[in-house]
Specification:
Layout: H1 4-16, E1 38-42, E2 45-48, E3 53-56, H2 59-62, H3 71-81, H4 92-104, E4 110-114, H5 117-132, E5 136-140, E6 161-162, E7 178-181, H6 186-196, E8 200-205, H7 221-231, E9 235-239, H8 251-255, E10 262-265, E11 276-280, H9 282-285, H10 304-315, H11 319-340, E12 346-350, E13 353-357, H12 366-369, H13 374-386, E14 389-390, E15 399-400, H14 407-421
Parallel strand pairs: 3-14, 5-7, 5-8, 8-9, 9-10
Antiparallel strand pairs: 1-2, 2-3, 4-11, 6-7, 10-11, 12-13, 13-15
Bound molecules: pyridoxal-5'-phosphate.
């Protein structure tokens, strides 16, 4: 496969852009590659600047449930652009998308749009602290909630203790109120609440974590988090930036029948434009400025083009689409499970996303995920790339499906995995 134009593009980009990329994992360093530069994308396919075509299982990190360049979404965006691209003054598309989001997520009684998932989570946490008048936030090892200072916390050990930042440039004090505990572990959460119950503002969780690769909550775990937060007057925040509209139309909260106090959404909701949203109980949202004392704002928040693209996307999310997605998920999972059985690989999947972990043991937590053979994953990534299949370039990410992935593409995916293993 000729990739000379991409190599040259990367060299040029690196002269001006830090690391040559605008988000670190795009550099493909952990898989021993250099980035593809994309020329265009449509449906399930991306074309790089050398003219190579790939079936895309990254989909802009789960954004394109309808595939790239969906005609209805493009039409809505084009129409919106002609009316001006930002006002900084309220406009009707904001209310239209808000209404749609509320229909999918009834727990979001009130909501507010922002421009990225990072902002949505950051704002939800400030609000949770303002509402409870408490400081501590509990998160889970391996869950990602954007790159706000106080959330960049890795848990050193599995012990439920206050943690240090996992990035340079974050003062210890900024993470002093963040605790990270192992996902699917009730004892660790129990201990934290026993020791700090009166100071915990919120528990934030990806209800089906996808940022350590896909990991499923064990039976009753999310119910347990709902119960212990309620008992301690702490808020439960579901970060559904990935799972929203994907694992079910109404996200993991619909799938598992749990009502969180606050929810964050991103990725799919902006239809491929920078938009995200946080929202939840009306009494909590009432604390937000201008009604209340918790400040939050954004120059491009509720951007009319993003709102129009988001609304067109949500309108295309029909029951038929979810049924077909489920069918595709079944194909890839049943056939893929057979192919990887006995090959020291674990397959985790949930509605339209899956991860192949290169480890023989079950993956229920970040600790389990980290047992994966990363060299073998890197070889797998490069093999799939050579077969014209673009995967998210890290063991700790999810592969995503869209309505544009055909049965043939999925069979080809399974075949390419089989080839790698033989
Ligand atoms: C992607 C992601 C974020 C951050 O969203 P950005 O738009 O990249 O800032 C937050 N939470 C989860 C669960 C995510 O997957």
């Amino acid at each position: 496969m000729n990739r000379t134009q991409s190599v040259e593009a990367y060299r040029e980009a690196s002269q001006y852009i830090a690391g040559g990329v605008n988000s670190p994992v795009r550099a493909l360093r952990s898989v021993g590659e250099t980035p593809l530069f994309v020329r265009k994308a449509a449906g399930a396919m991306i074309t790089d600047v050398d003219g190579n075509r790939f079936t895309d299982y990254c989909l802009s990190w789960g954004v394109f449930l309808l595939g790239h360049a969906h005609p209805e979404v493009l039409r809505a965006a084009r129409k919106a652009v002609t009316a001006g691209t930002s006002y900084g003054i309220p406009s009707l598309p904001e209310t239209q998308l808000a209404q749609l989001v509320h229909q999918f997520f009834p727990s979001m009684e009130k909501l507010r749009f922002v421009s990225s998932g990072t902002e949505a989570v950051m704002s939800a946490i400030r609000l949770a602290r303002g509402f409870t008048q408490r400081n501590m936030i509990v998160k889970f090892d391996g869950c990602y909630h954007g790159h706000a200072d106080h959330l960049l916390v890795s848990a050193g050990s599995g012990a439920a203790s206050l943690c240090n930042a996992s990035s340079a440039g974050v003062p210890d004090g900024f993470t002093a109120y963040t605790a990270s505990v192992p996902f699917n572990d009730t004892t660790a959460v129990e201990r934290l609440f026993a020791a700090h119950g009166n100071d915990i503002a919120a528990v934030i969780v990806e209800p089906v974590p996808a940022n350590m690769g896909v990991v499923l909550p064990v039976d009753g775990y999310l119910q347990y988090l709902r119960k212990i937060t309620q008992e301690n007057q702490a808020l439960l925040i579901f970060d559904e930036v990935i799972t929203g509209f994907r694992v079910a139309p109404g996200g993991a909260q619909q799938l598992f029948g749990i009502t969180p106090d606050l929810t964050t959404l991103g990725k799919i909701v902006g239809g491929g434009f920078p938009a995200a949203v946080f929202g939840g109980r009306a009494d909590i949202m009432a604390l937000l400025a201008p009604d209340g004392p918790v400040y939050q704002a954004g120059t491009l928040s509720g951007n009319p083009v993003a709102m129009a693209a988001g609304a067109a996307t949500l309108r295309a999310l029909t029951p038929k689409l979810y049924a077909s997605l489920e069918e595709k998920n079944d194909i890839i999972c049943s056939e893929l499970s057979n192919v990887v059985a006995g090959k020291d690989i674990r397959l985790n999947h949930a509605g339209g996303m899956f991860t192949l972990f290169f480890t023989p043991s079950e993956v229920c937590s970040f600790e389990d995920a980290r047992k994966s053979d990363l060299k073998r994953f890197a070889a797998f990534f490069r093999h799939m790339l050579a077969e014209g299949i673009y995967l998210p370039p890290s063991q700790f990410e999810a592969c995503f499906l869209s309505s544009m992935h055909t049965t043939d593409m999925l069979h080809r995916f399974v075949w390419a995995v089989k080839k790698f293993l033989s």
